[in-house]
Design a protein that fits this description.
Layout (H helix, E strand, L loop, with lengths): L1 E2 L4 H12 L12 H4 L6 E4 L5 E9 L6 E9 L8 H15 L4 E6 L4 H9 L3 E6 L9 E7 L1
Parallel strand pairs: 4-5
Antiparallel strand pairs: 1-2, 2-3, 3-4, 5-7, 6-7
This protein binds coenzyme A.
Coenzyme A binds next to strand 4, helix 3 and helix 4.
């Protein structure tokens, strides 16, 4: 696991729609996440130095007890090998070191794989919020106590 870098942006936006099963996701990952959040975001590489997974997160500036994960993704070829858990473990440690006692994330109700993954990591589904991200954009609100 290493820190996310600005040059990861081009790699991620090239693969991210495919990693999400063809859903258009790239617009949700503007370059700002790869420039302003590099101290709280992680990448993981395969043996050839290719990006195998990434996590974009930050310690909330407004909610001093909380940290937030915006995105986590693992190359389909590497799924089920613990990379997602490894990325989250790095983030949990960082958030706890910064005095945070909870990590929040949201996901789509239809993303059953993401929901199961987050449950396996100790997240609780607090609610399914209708129109959370705009009309028709319902979201599952997830929290993991540290
Ligand atoms: C969700 C995702 C990040 C999981 O990454 P991963 O590296 O395969 O996950 P891990 O191997 O670390 O799995 C950790 C735990 O979650 C469980 N898990 C992971 N994916 C799962 C799935 N699709 N269904 C059920 N459980 C799952 C694993 O069984 C494991 O549980 P265990 O440790 O108790 O055995 C990956 O599937 C992915 O990139 N999906 C597409 C993008 C996405 O939906 N991201 C999340 C929303 S932002």
């Amino acid at each position: 696991v290493r820190a996310l870098r600005p040059d990861d942006h081009a790699v991620v936006i090239r693969v991210v729609d495919a990693w999400w099963g063809g859903r258009p996701m790239a617009d949700l990952l503007p370059r700002l996440f790869f420039t302003h959040f590099t101290t709280t975001s992680f990448a993981i590489e395969d043996g050839a130095g290719e990006l195998a997974g990434f996590l974009c997160g930050f310690c909330s500036p407004a909610r001093r007890d909380e940290a937030y994960v915006h995105f986590v993704g693992v190359d389909p070829r590497w799924r089920g090998a613990g990379l997602g858990r490894t990325l989250y473990d790095a983030f949990f440690a960082l958030a706890a070191d910064d005095g945070r006692d909870a990590v929040r994330a949201v996901t789509s109700p239809v993303n059953t794989g993401s929901r199961a993954f987050h449950r396996a990591l100790g997240f609780v589904e607090e609610a399914i919020a209708p129109d959370y991200d705009g009309p028709g954009k319902d979201r599952v609100l997830l929290v993991r106590r540290l």
